[in-house]
Amino acid sequence: MATTPSDDIDQPAVKVSPPKRTSAGLPGVTTAMRHAVREMGPVRSASGLLRMNQPGGFDCMSCAWPDPNAPDRSHAEFCENGAKALASEATRKRVRPELFAEHSIDDLAARDDHWLNRQGRLTTPMIREDGASHYSPISWEAAFERIARELHGLDGPDQAAFYTSGRTSNEAAFLYQLMVRGLGTNNLPDCSNMCHESSGEALGTTIGIGKGSVTLHDVETAGLIIIAGQNPGTNHPRMLTSLEKAKQQGAVIVAVNPLPEAGLTRYRNPQTVHGMVGRGTRIADVHLQVRLGGDLGVFQGLGKLLLEAEEAGRRTIGMTSVLDHAFLERHTAGLEEYLDGVRATPWSDIEEATGLTETALREVGELLLDSNRTIVAWAMGLTQHKHAVATIKEIVNLVLLQGNLGKPGAGLLPVRGHSNVQGDRTMGIFEKMPQPFLDRLEAEFSFASPREAGHDTVNTIRAMRDGRVRFFMGMGGNFLKAAPDTAVTEAALRSCAMTVQVSTKLNHSHLAPGRTAIILPTLGRSDLDAQRTGRQRVTVEDSMSMVHASSGHLPPPAPDLLSEIAIVCRLARAIFHDEQGRARPGSPQADWQAMEDDYRVIRRHIEAVVPGFVDYERRIDAPGGFRLPHGPHDVRTFETTSTKAHFTRTPLWWPTVPPGRLLLQTMRSHDQYNTTVYGPDDRYRGISGGRRVVMVNAADLLELGFTDGDVVDLVSEFTDGVERRAEGFLVVAYDTAKGCAASYFPETNVLVPLDSTADDSNTPTSKSIVIRLERAAT
User: Would 373 be classed as within a structural domain?
Assistant: First the structure.
């Protein structure tokens, strides 16, 4: 056992024990219930949990994994982390003005994320006046008037930026982007820019739509599932139930990840007797322990193996050849150039890039040959590298070779994180929406929408830093802790004339205020939302393009708390209407009051602007909602420049690390979701009582002169010449790939330079941080 002092409030020391080899089971149930009852009490817990992810209930506010068809849902259709998310949102604790009076902004900023989250729900609009050390209460009307006045005082609309978190509903996101474009800017950064932007960029250019191509039924009937750069046991636990169903149908599963993860080792389904008292289900049949950034080499290697098998005259199940020639000829372009690139890539380079042997890759190649229904799934382990877009294009290449697109049980599966991050993009939360969308938006609301591309997340931070953006508004999320280069981001926020945060809970973004800063508390997903026309419902879109209704029922934390929709509508009226209530010339011709009163009015506008939402209201009446069209999956059509799916030739590239250095990835613990920290433990990895740990291969520790239990500073080294430091981390010898290390975000986001981003997508490279270890000062 190794211990070191910890910054966490509830535990005095980090404790390390062997990692778990199974996930969920009874420990998952007891942990979930402990969090729920502690925060909500037994009655409120039962009321909330039994309505989560149920028809007529509310959608889980954590991950975007889809729900089973309504008849197939469990009465407890939630996971451990979903229960923690509900407990956090529906807690009985309240942050009232007295807390802000007692604690200065600097006092609160010194607290950690866990402590801030534990204070409870925000209830009152607050303002930090220029020069003040504390927040103080402000009325809703005065807050909206102050924000509108600040926006009207800018030299131009592009001096404002409007961030969106993935929790925001379709309806709120649609109105938010309408308000922003009505102001005259496309500065609409969102959390996608920091996670799956690389997926959207790669898929958009290769198959014509930046979304995954599979359904839940496809996952559960696949023959082979390759899961790369993803930890479902912590990040999308309900995915494990679908993987278990796939295993029961005979699927083979391959995990490609630098760390072994309990969720992909063995799953004990807490809703079955076998899961609760038996050994559970083995999930991954093969684990490829790839080096960080080596996934491009993995998928090029697998493509090379298929080509070799094709040229050797082998065949795939149900096919006369390995490659699906009919599909390739009819539906793809660029095949020969891609194959030439594969032939030219030597196995020695593939082995060096991946840290794997040719033999290990050939084992997976044989599984591909034995499958005629293959899915490749991935998450941020692939999307946050310099060559992330190229890596995902390589996945597309592999899937296309065998025609595993547009047929049952096969396809591409980027597993999205936050619960409606995909829906927000569908609704127009994007700094460079396609022109046809903007055309329809203009026609519906009779105004001139801006056409020049706006700022994404990284460019928003740069613009604030450089004084080109003076106003920042965040609709949900914790921008400061989600963004890279924490010190630079904090300084950028503080340099703004005004910052506005729409939030349910207190977080560090509130504590990096502009000269004037406003906090607008809002309803959560589980809260009852009643407007003038009665109880309202909103909609969300999951990872697989299913759109369904969500309706909270728990009493709100405060009687005058506004929904995100009401906040946008009232702010829009303050911005676009004069003192007599008349619409200003050139503003969107929208009845903001009617949309606040009745969310069905918003959905009628969405029908007119967003493809696939015809008969919106009736279709969300159906339990489970409806699926948006997906040309590649549904009918094998591709909205690309050639109207075909595109192969891509990409030179093999991988991160190189100087001697004496490691390549660090940031990751979540099991006790957090995104930047929200529920507690100081990471049960599956054997870490408890703290978060400032760095996991390093034992052989690397020996070579570097460190031992398990040392306390070190992490120092990142990039070509910009600036050394960034995260202090006081406990070294834990761990089974991670040689040359690689892992630690938790947001504590290590400080190590990621603002200018270190993925090619084409501009996503921060949080999985490719070159670091050295330095002994911490005693």
Answer: yes
- What span, in angstroms and rounded, lies between the C-alpha atoms of 187 and 44? 40
d(CA 755, CA 484): 9
Kindly give the residue spans of alpha helices, DSSP state H, lying in 186-263: 197-206, 216-220, 232-235, 239-248
Confidence band of 716 (pLDDT split at 50, 70, 90): very high
Structure tokens at 450: 């801006």
Residue carrying structure tokens 């102001």:
183
Tens-place pLDDT, residues 377-432: 999 999 999 999 999 999 999 999 999 999 999 999 999 888 899 999 999 999 99
pLDDT in tens, 4-60: 333 433 334 899 999 999 999 888 899 989 999 999 999 999 999 999 999 999 999
Residue 727: enclosing H or E segment and its boundaries?
A: strand 724-733
- The answer to whether the CB of 725 falls within 8 A of the CB of 714 is yes
Strand ranges, E, within 34-120: 94-95
**544, part of any domain:** yes
| Distance, CA of 197 to CA of 475 (rounded, Å) | 19
Residue 635 lies in a domain: no
Question: Distance between CA atoms of 608 and 752, rounded to whole angstroms?
Answer: 41
Burial of 447 (0-12, 13-18, 19+ CB in 10 A): buried
Residue 274: is its pLDDT beyond 80? no
pLDDT digits (tens, 9 = 90+) for 283-293: 999 999 999 99
The number of residues making up the chain comes to 778
Q: How confident is the model at residue 1 (pLDDT cuts 50, 70, 90)?
A: very low
DSSP string, 301-338: HHHHHHHHHHHTT---TTSSSSS-HHHHHHHEE-HHHH
| DSSP annotation of 430 | S
Domain match, 472 and 589 both: yes
Beta bridge partners of 733: 696
Q: Work out how many domains the chain is built from and give that number.
A: 4
Q: What is the mean pLDDT of the chain?
A: 95
State the virtual CA torsion across 204, 208, 211, 214 in degrees, nearest 10: -140
167/50 same-domain check: no
The residue type of 127 is I
Establish if 8 belongs to a structural domain.
no
Q: What angle do CA 756, 762, 765 make, to 5 degrees?
A: 40
Final residue belonging to a domain, choices 415, 442, 473: 415
Tens digits of residue pLDDT in 696-707: 999 999 999 999
